[in-house]
Amino acid sequence: MDLDAVADELYGLWPGEFTAARTAREKEARAAGDKELAGQVKALGKPTTVAWLANRLVRDHGDELQPLLELGDALREATAVLQGEELRSLSQQQHQLVAALVRQARRDAAGSGHRVGEDAARGLEETLRAALADADLSAQLAAGRLTGGLQHAGFGGSGGGAPGPARRAATSGGTPGGKAATQATKGKASTGKATKGTAGTDAAADRARERRERAAARKQAERDLADARKQAAAAATAHAEAKAVVDEAAAAATAAAARVAELRAELEQVSRDQAAAERRRRSAEPEVAAATKAVREADRLVRARTTELEDLG
Fold first, then answer.
1. At what angle do helices 179-186 and 3-10 cross, to 10 degrees?
2. pLDDT by residue (tens digit) across 106-155?
3. Looking only at Cα atoms, what is the longest distance across the chain?
4. How many CB atoms lie within 10 A of CB 90?
5. What is the pLDDT of residues 179-196, one digit of tens each?
6. Which candidate, 150, 167, 148, places its Cα nearest to that of 211?
7. Domain-by-domain residue ranges, the chain?
8. Is the pTM of this model over 0.70?
9. For residues 154 and 163, is the Cβ–Cβ distance under 8 A?
């Protein structure tokens, strides 16, 4: 276990998981007898939500982030030489890339079960723009170990003027990250002490920003809860209406089934009556034939007697 491996692991975690994981790694280092590493791990700063979003972008979407970092070089060059038309074109690309990356980060956060409020989204946008404006901040972002958002007081992608002074959020070990940067930090402990006051100010600002993010997230959660309750009420009403329709249809189906049974019974009775009538017809046929024969015989006799009477006449 070394500092780089631990930092890479910790700065990919959701801020709420960071402290427990850092404590566990510190204990592991102490148990292994590496007090220096344990101290370095303990000194790693907890990231804000904005920093976590940025670190996740570096880890999960490095290929999509790289064009933005390369665009920063072109923007800084265009700003320095005041190439207006080119600067406007690059600024438009900047806006599109930043917006796309912020949307991607929010989708990723939602996919891992974490809601990102508008304040955190704006903080991430500001961090990406700061990386565009300043090469050092770009390197810090690319290291994927931010503890807070980045800010820059330069062109910000809006054109005009040379890059201004930057306020950089601390990364693990106070450097942009990587093994070489970590070794350089170990050799500059005295410089770290000199910047302790600035780091404290940054930490206070980060804590204030994190409080704002939590408040915004809470408000968003309250709005979402209200919306969810409205949707639940509407769903309950729709369910009741649908159930009434289903019950009515079930009653109609029951009545129809009863009517079908009744009609089947009537049809069976009619079939039985028809069969009985057919049997009576067949049994009556001999009587009809005999009666027909008797009628013909009587008619012949009548004609014969009539002829005799006429002859006697």
1. 120
2. 998 999 899 889 999 999 999 998 888 888 898 899 889 999 999 876 54
3. 170
4. 22
5. 434 433 443 333 344 444
6. 148
7. 3-194
8. no
9. yes
